[in-house]
């Protein structure tokens, strides 16, 4: 009796149904695996795309910052250049003020003096002082008289027949002195050349 009851209690399992359930489970598991692989691939594609977008954003940001920094640099250097040009002559002008004072004293002295020699001597002293200041700043006279004519230093005003053969192609007379500032010509000497 006990045996009969046990048999009755045991569920009757149909072999066909068991196989179907197993196939369905395998199919569901396979579908789940395929869909999770697709999700992983999609996630990787999205993450790669997101990474590229982040890199693109970072590079654009870096470019904009660099462009703004360069623009600020250009403005700053332009401002410094303008300030330099405005104050470049300041040192020279300040050093020339004593010469200007000396000229004013010389002009006052000419009002009451009859001694031309002392007046001439005073003017020569002021000229020497002025030349000394300018020489300290790098100004030099171009020596032209009896020198060969050089287009890099001289400007020929006219040609005259040379008095001697050795003066042909040389400077015979200097009409206006030429000057260099730190070895760069700032005014060409105006000269008369022998032909």
UniProtKB/TrEMBL annotation:
Localization terms from the record: Cytoplasm
Keyword field contains Transport: no
Highest taxon of source: Bacteria
One Pfam family it belongs to: GrpE
Signal peptide: none
Gene3D superfamilies found in the cross-reference section: 3.90.20.20, Head domain of nucleotide exchange factor GrpE
Protein role: Participates actively in the response to hyperosmotic and heat shock by preventing the aggregation of stress-denatured proteins, in association with DnaK and GrpE. It is the nucleotide exchange factor for DnaK and may function as a thermosensor. Unfolded proteins bind initially to DnaJ; upon interaction with the DnaJ-bound protein, DnaK hydrolyzes its bound ATP, resulting in the formation of a stable complex. GrpE releases ADP from DnaK; ATP binding to DnaK triggers the release of the substrate protein, thus completing the reaction cycle.
Keywords annotated in UniProt: Chaperone, Cytoplasm, Stress response
Gene label: grpE
Biased composition, class Basic and acidic residues, residue ranges: 1-20
Subunit structure: Homodimer.
Family, similarity comment: Belongs to the GrpE family.
Protein name in the entry: Protein GrpE
Originating organism: Pedobacter montanisoli
């Amino acid at each position: 009796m006990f045996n009969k009851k046990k048999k009755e209690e045991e569920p009757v399992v149909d072999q066909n149904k068991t196989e179907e359930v197993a196939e369905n489970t395998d199919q569901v598991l396979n579908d789940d695996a395929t869909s999770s692989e697709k999700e992983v691939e999609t996630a990787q594609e999205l993450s790669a795309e997101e990474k590229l977008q982040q890199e693109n954003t970072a590079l654009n940001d870096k470019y904009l910052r660099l462009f703004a920094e360069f623009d600020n640099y250009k403005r700053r250097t332009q401002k410094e250049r303008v300030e330099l040009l405005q104050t470049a002559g300041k040192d020279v002008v300040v050093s020339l003020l004593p010469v200007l004072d000396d000229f004013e004293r010389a002009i006052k002295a000419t009002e009451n003096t009859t001694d031309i020699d002392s007046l001439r001597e005073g003017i020569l002293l002021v000229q020497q002082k002025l030349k000394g200041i300018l020489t300290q700043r790098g100004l030099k006279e171009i020596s032209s008289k009896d020198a060969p004519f050089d287009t890099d230093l001289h400007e020929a005003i006219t040609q005259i027949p040379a008095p001697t053969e050795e003066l042909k192609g040389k400077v015979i007379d200097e009409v206006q002195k030429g000057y260099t500032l730190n070895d760069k010509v700032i005014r060409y000497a105006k000269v008369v050349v022998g032909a």
